[in-house]
Structure formats: C-alpha cells, structure tokens
Amino acid sequence: LAKTTQPISMDSYEGQEVNITCSHNNIATNDYITWYQQFPSQGPRFIIQGYKTKVTNEVASLFIPADRKSSTLSLPRVSLSDTAVYYCLVGDTNTGNQFYFGTGTSLTVIP
Amino acid sequence: EAQVTQNPRYLITVTGKKLTVTCSQNMNHEYMSWYRQDPGLGLRQIYYSMNVEVTDKGDVPEGYKVSRKEKRNFPLILESPSPNQTSLYFCASSLSGAENIQYFGAGTRLSVL
Asked: Which of A27, A51, A101, A103 to mutate to probe the B interface, most B CBs <10 Å?
C-alpha cells in the first residue's frame, strides 16, 4: 500500500520559500501524487497534483524525481495565511481506490 | 455552486443512540468517501464508494455503515455510537477514483457521551 511519510511540522518566516517533502516508497505505476491544504475545522482543499517531473500552478510547484519515491511541494513566498496542515496523498489503484492521508505537515508561518 | 454538503455540522448524542450523518454532492461525481479526523492521527478513511450500490471498507470501518442508493448521496450511519467515535467527520467526492481530486465537505463534529 502506498502510504506516505512527511515531517510532522515546519516553521517558516513570511516571504520565504517553503519546501515540504513527502516519501512514498511503494508508489505504484498508475498512482498520482496529490497535495491538499487544511485549515483548522475545515475540510482539506486541493493544491496540486502530478505524476512525474514538475508541475506548477498559481499556488505551488510540485517536484517529482524520476523514481517517484518522493515528492516536494514548494510554496513560494509564504504568508501568514499559508499556516495550515499539508497532506501528501498517493492514490492506491492496486487496492481499489483507498486513500491514506496520514498526519500531514503542520506549517507555521511566522511574521 | 459545486459543493459537498454535510449535515448536521455539530451533533451531541449518547452512547447507543443510532444516528445518521448525511452527505450530498451536486457534481455528478462517481466516487464518494467518509473520513474521520482525530488529533495526532490525521485523516483516516472509513468507507468509500466507487458508484451507486458499490461500497468498500477503508482503514477504520468498524462501528460504521454506509449506503449508496443514489449517486449524489452517501450517508454515514452509526448504529450504536460509542465514545470512541467522538471525532470530526468529513465527506468527500471525486469524479472517479484514485487519480481524481477530492472535494470535501465542511465537516461534522460529533460528540458521543
């Protein structure tokens, strides 16, 4: 099963670039990598999704190396409103579409 | 507006009293799922459904039931709630399964006394 491992927490100053790495050693050939953001007492919200190499949207970038056993979410110039929990998710098509969110990475942005 | 709607948002009940948390989506999504979130344990999947009349167990299905009689609705049923089911529950839906983006409801905070 393609479970993921992320740092439990990170701190960053406003305006800095933040990189959160996720390990998914057992990722299957057909699995995509998706990142979600969650604010307290709200449902997770989609940030970015990728399969390989690099993906960029208006919010973040996602870097995936060739072996796909890890991925890095990059948040450019974070602000206080980026303080949230970030989840790396790998869809496990081998088990019929079961999902494992894990505990995520709690990012705190400091003024 | 595309959304996933859960009801109720807050619920306090007593041990053993059957309850249902409703979930409805208006995006014609095939895939729907229930999660619970507890401090230090993150989000854990309870049940999911690939389509009407098709449901499967997630990571923590014990004590829960679901049904998918219509595409838009996916209720979560606690036949005999216990205090260890006190949690924050989220319903989600996506176009299909693992490769698709999930859209989450606002959550239901359940307390079982």
From this structure: A101
Strands (E), chain B: 4-7, 10-13, 19-25, 31-38, 42-51, 54-57, 65-66, 76-78, 87-94, 103-104, 108-112
User: Which one, of B42, B14, B32, B43, lies nearest residue B111 by Cα?
Assistant: B14
CA–CA separation, A35 and A44 (whole Å)? 9
How confident is the model at residue A98, as a pLDDT?
Answer: 74
Contacts of A36 in chain B (CB under 8 A): 102
Q: Is the per-residue pLDDT at A99 higher than 80?
A: no
Give how far B1 is from chain A: nearest CA, Å: 16
Cα angle for residues B65, B68, B69 (degrees, 5° grid): 125
3-class state of residue B62 by DSSP: coil
Give the Cα separation of B43 and A40 in Å (integer). 13
What's the pLDDT at B41? 86
Q: Nearest-CA neighbor of A45 among B3, B76, B81?
A: B3
